[in-house]
Amino acid sequence: MELILIYATVFLYLLSLAAYWLYFFRKTPLFEYSSLIVLGLGGLSHLCSLLYRSMILNYLPLTSSYETLSFLSFCIILIILLIQLRHKITVLGSFILPVALLIFIVALGMYKEIEPVKLIFRNRWFSVHLPFVFLSYANFVMSLGISIVYLIQEHQVKSHRIGKVSHALPSLAMLDSLNYKLLSLGLVFLSIGIVAGAVWEKEAFGSYWMWSPKEVWALITALIYFSWLHLRFFKGWRGKKSAFFSIAGFLSMAFTYLGVNTLFKGFHNFIK
What we know:
By secondary structure, the protein is mainly α. It has 2 domains: 1-117; 120-272, no CATH class. It has helices at residues 2-25, 29-57, 65-87, 92-109, 126-158, 164-168, 172-205, 213-234, 240-263. It is flat, with a radius of gyration of 19 Å.
């Protein structure tokens, strides 16, 4: 049952991506609504696959590379849908949906049959910690995509090369506003995730903070984004500067999730 849902999800995401690309070149209501509806169906199928695994095990399935990457992909899809519904911006799906799809395909390459997990992870704070961390990661991935689109659009405008691509993209003001909202929300989610993780550590290991490599890099990532927020409010860092800060924060986040597990040993290496 789970594999049927997974394959249906991949098919619907691919179909939706085709609709997004068609909309990018030919802005018609047919492609706009088709991309939204098909992506919504794909997201629903994806959600059902996550819920199926969760109900079978009666725990939050976020303790393997497959599960965490699948959840991350789903969160990105959810944000794409929310932006399209709230801000009526369809074209971003052409750029960011491929990233979500790639993450999901990579997750499938790490697929593992449903296995029971250690009792230590069946904890209410653990069930808060990881979802909020990966919700923050999804926001930061979206922010990265929007920052790259912003830099492309700004280059087009400043070089007076206003072509079809530039006309298809949102305005610089809209991109900067979206970037601000995504980074701010991602920072809130990351902060909640870190605090919940500290409480879980206290209950599981007897200490709120153990200075593991994962914790240190999560703190560095949070500090980068807090620095961005400070500079935006008090130094007026917007636009291009904000976009570069977003890219720097994403690199730190990516290293926290992928690099730390590869290069360092620690109790966070349960995700394999």
